[in-house]
Amino acid sequence: VDIRSFDLSAKELTLESYQRRPWHEPGERNFRFTWSEPIPPQIATQMTERVGKPVRNRVPPRSIAALSEMPAHHRTWSGGSNGALRFKDTGIDYVTEDGRDSRTWRWADIQAIANPNPYELRITGYREIAEFDLKQPISRELFEEMWDHLYTADLNLSPSGGSGHHAAQEARR
């Protein structure tokens, strides 16, 4: 089966394939697997890396050190959840105490980030858009570091021209 994407939670894996469903059922065929024990975060991370396509991983690894962490409220149509955003070299995690609304985004899974004001952060991924109310303001330096990870990672910027967000802006002019 060719995997288009997958959605992984602590006790369930849903593979989305390119395979068509029977004629009377619209869309592509999904395969759902459940297990009795929670999947370890390290295994979840390995699965997302091996697929290489956009995925929704709801099992963030807590053992990886964060560059910064801040309390946040994830806004959803049903009210949302409280947790912490963890900013890492490998991506962004949102961790909740009960784990139900937790998720992790690799930089490759993120299309855009927005910070309309110091108390708000929007992550636009290939699989979802997540909006957060920040319980403390995000610093300009932290947002620019995230910006650099997302937008300048593949740019070949010369050392003399600087690096990061400001150098990328200059390179585009």
Commentary on this structure:
- The strands form two sheets. The chain has a seven-stranded antiparallel sheet with strand order 8-7-6-5-11-10-9, with helices on one face.
- The protein has helices at residues 41-51, 140-151, 164-172; strands at 3-9, 12-20, 28-34, 56-57, 68-75, 81-88, 91-96, 103-106, 110-114, 120-125, 129-134.
- The longest helix is centred in the C-terminal third of the chain and has 12 residues, at 140-151.
- It is globular.
- With 173 residues, it is an alpha+beta fold.
- The termini are far apart.
- The chain has one domain: Roll (PH-domain like).
Q: Care to count the β-strands? A: 11
Q: Order of SSEs, N→C? A: EEEHEEEEEEEEHH
| Rounded average pLDDT | 87
- Percentage of residues in DSSP E strands: 35-45%
Question: Domains counted in the coordinates: how many?
Answer: 1
- The rounded Rg comes to 18 Å
Widest sheet: strand ordering = 8-7-6-5-11-10-9
Distance between termini?
45 Å
Give the full name of the CATH homologous superfamily.
Pleckstrin-homology domain (PH domain)/Phosphotyrosine-binding domain (PTB)
* Top-tier CATH class: Mainly Beta
In DSSP terms (H or I, runs of 4 or more residues), the helix count works out at: 3
- The CATH architecture assignment turns out to be Roll
**Biggest pleated sheet:** 7 strands, antiparallel
Low-confidence stretches: none
Overall geometric form: globular
Output the CATH topology: PH-domain like
What structural class do helix, strand and pairing data support? Answer: alpha+beta
The helix fraction, in percent, is 10-25%
